[in-house]
Specification:
homodimer; Phosphoribosyl-aminoimidazole Synthetase, Chain A, domain 2; 11 strands; about 25% strand
């Protein structure tokens, strides 16, 4: 009998989502950073997303509780940035052993609440459930949000010839940035207001996994200029491409817009780098080493 | 340092939710079966809910995967019934060890999808994450839905003198019904369309835990006529009150409406019992034995 580790994450997800039926009002189901459904206000769509953290996998057991909470919320919010949207309401699910200190859970909640407030969204409900003593804590954050129809950016509408950009610097996130990163909501809002971004996603599993996903969703290949990949200080090119947990934006845009983008970006976000790292092409992209597969053996 | 097991579930939840800030558009945050936020269509509110299952706690490891999936979805749907609402879109989070058989996860998804379809809602996204080998599977289902403002039923608007009703029969759910119960969506819709139900909830942790919660949320005490509690065949009164996982509706309604309710219910749902089990009062209710506290030592 095949096990999950035999398949790998993308093949598993493809197999599972093929079992799901669509329903009324669903504009885009699984496969992008958020699901897109018919929205509330005129000219808007509703965005839905769930994400989770597992102790020992997404954070070390001795990490500060408030930082873990912050990360749990910020990861979900980052997916709203990736769609050119904004989060609105959050639901928490926390499964943890009964011998956990109350103070730890309170710290977790404080970190989650603070991060939600910072982006003007609210935690409106939650569920706590017990696990057997010794089992790792599981924290899931689901959220609703919205995007203007004119700013909604899927992974799938990249075009051949588009230039590929990333925000910030990549690699070495496990040294600490994976707990303290900024979800690029403000930047994505500005970007999708001012420019026709064809395709966008956030980099969670590393450029090596995520760039091929964006290209494939758009029916394209890609060219990556490895030397241009913006690196965190002290990190190799291979690490910048393969490490993951960067939560920076990766997006595709017509070359005609690129010059204006770079000039206006530099004025608007003078402290955040924007780098062209390659393009979408006709041909299949190269195989990239690294990236994070949740179920790899 | 106090641990979660020292507090118990309700005290923990009260402590945690006091740490959360409200936000724009939030009509009711944590504390009811669903959160209530400003809604999409005119005359409607949006409902939000998350719930979870843990292997070995909410189902036996050898339970059939499709039934586990069905239960995970049906539990969340039951909370929409409890508000007089209807679910719309679902998000799944599944954390599981990589040595789990693919066939098991597919069975789980099939069960979840079938249950969602049955109630005309759709699973629009999901997240799968790996756990260390040996850790129990955690399944979380978050959902959005809606209620007409005129049919929205909270726990908190029960009135002294209201009669208390339950649907179906209680107790003995662990023999199998906890996997196969019917979320009372159709019944709740009919009920809130035809009658002014003051307060309602679904019975998940047992009457012994849930009835005092509904009474307290309404600022009332309660009287329970123990002998009237409708029992599953072969179950004692104590078990019917304390077992939990019934997912029947408990609701409060003015005595003036009770007679018409009982007559019309019998015509509409001839195969589902409706029983008056007591009333909301001025005085504190009695202490009831049993019920399910997730974090009790």
């Amino acid at each position: 009998m095949p096990r999950i580790s035999d398949l790998g994450e993308d093949a598993l997800v493809a197999r599972l989502t093929s079992l799901l039926s669509s329903g009324p009002g669903v504009l885009a189901g699984p496969g992008d950073d958020c699901a897109v459904v018919e929205g509330s206000a005129r000219g808007e769509v509703e965005l839905l997303k769930t994400d989770c953290l597992v102790e020992g996998i997404h954070y070390r057991p001795n990490a500060m509780a408030s930082k873990v909470g912050r990360k749990a919320v910020a990861r979900t919010l980052s997916d709203f940035a990736a769609m050119g949207g904004w989060p609105r309401h959050l639901l928490l699910t926390i499964a943890l052993p009964p011998d956990r200190e109350v103070r730890w859970v309170e710290g977790l909640y404080r970190g989650m609440n603070k991060c939600a407030q910072q982006y003007e969204c609210a935690i409106v409900g939650g569920e706590t459930s017990s696990l057997p003593v010794g089992a790792p804590v599981v924290i899931s954050v689901a959220a609703t949000g919205f995007a203007k129809r004119t700013q909604l950016t899927m992974r799938s509408a990249g075009q051949r010839g588009d230039l590929l950009f990333v925000t910030g610097r990549l690699g070495g996130s496990l040294k600490g940035r994976h707990l303290t990163f900024t979800p690029r909501l403000v930047e994505a809002r500005w970007l999708t207001e001012k420019f026709r971004v064809h395709a966008m996603m956030d980099l969670s599993d590393g450029l090596a996994m995520d760039l091929p996903r964006l290209a494939a969703a758009s029916g394209c290949g890609f060219r990556l200029d490895r030397e241009s990949v913006p690196r965190t200080r002290g990190v190799t090119v291979g690490q910048a491409i393969g490490d993951g947990e960067d939560y920076e934006l990766l997006f595709a845009l017509s070359p005609r817009s690129a010059k204006r983008l770079q000039a206006e970006w530099a004025r608007q976000f003078s402290r955040l780098r924007l780098t062209c790292i390659g393009s979408l092409t006709d041909c299949e992209g190269p195989l990239l080493d690294g990236g994070w597969d949740h179920f790899a053996s």
